[in-house]
Specification:
Layout (H helix, E strand, L loop, with lengths): L2 E6 L6 H14 L4 E5 L9 H7 L5 E4 L4 E4 L6 H5 L6 E5 L9 E5 L13 E6 L6 H14 L16 H9 L18 E3 L2 E3 L3 H16 L17
Parallel strand pairs: 1-5, 1-6, 2-5, 6-7
Antiparallel strand pairs: 3-4, 8-9
Helix pairs in contact: 1-4
Length: about 230
């Protein structure tokens, strides 16, 4: 299961520094980490790259050390997650996406009131970010308490949105398995190796649609179906 946390806090509270510290420690321990950040400012490109991306749907830049993919549109949260690889997801931004526990970074005690909404698993004073023992403590919290819900706000768990189930899980009243789309067994869809959450309605619709089509083909018998294609 993916270990996921959302790092929140006001500007200047040390969020980026904290993420770098905790990611480095996780990598040192052998975990593969994906970081997703929602920027409030325009992404800066040099003039040559900016003109190039205006003329295409994807602009891929690769070198001996790194590769970058420029997409000329904003990606929604679940779209970014579909690009994830590895064991741990750390999110900065997407403050309205209450699909995982939060770690709150703060500089002033009074700032904490804004973030006390029942979805936090840790609070990090900016002065503690350079403390090695504190980072180790928070790594342990991420690995033991981090998780990611489906993010569909489907209501199948009995709540109006994922935030309701998230709070009950953190209160010990429910478990991640109570997120119905994550445990849909009648159909699974994977994109780039990552399983896509499906509500029971969508899963059933896929089975009925593709199942009905396949049953009309010659030589088809009952069994597990696997379909692969490039999504463009």
């Amino acid at each position: 299961m993916i270990k996921a946390v959302q790092v929140v806090g006001y500007k200047g509270s040390g969020k980026s520094t904290f993420i770098k510290k905790i990611s480095a420690k996780l990598k040192e321990m052998g975990f593969k980490v994906t970081i997703v950040k929602h920027a409030c400012h325009e992404l800066l490109l040099n003039e040559k790259d900016r003109k190039m991306i205006e003329q295409c749907e994807r602009y891929i830049v690769t070198s001996n050390n790194h590769s970058l993919i420029y997409i000329p549109t904003e990606l929604k949260f679940l779209q970014t997650v579909s690009l994830m690889t590895g064991d741990v997801l750390i999110v900065e931004g997407f403050k309205n996406s209450n699909y995982m526990p939060q770690i709150v970074c703060y500089e002033k005690e009074e700032d904490l009131e804004t973030f006390k909404n029942g979805t936090s698993i840790a609070f990090v004073d900016k002065k503690e970010i350079e403390n090695e023992n504190k980072i180790l403590e928070l790594v342990d919290i991420v690995l033991n308490k981090g998780f990611l819900l489906a993010g569909l706000d489907c209501g199948d768990c009995g709540h109006n949105n994922c935030a309701g189930l998230l709070k009950e899980i953190l209160e010990g009243k429910k478990e991640v398995k109570n997120c119905i789309p994550l445990n849909s067994q009648i159909a699974t869809v994977k994109i780039n190796g990552n399983q896509l959450p499906l509500s029971p309605f969508v899963a059933k619709l896929l089975v009925e649609t593709y199942g009905g089509f396949l049953k009309g083909l010659k030589g088809v018998s009952e069994g597990t179906v696997e379909i692969k294609f490039d999504l463009k």
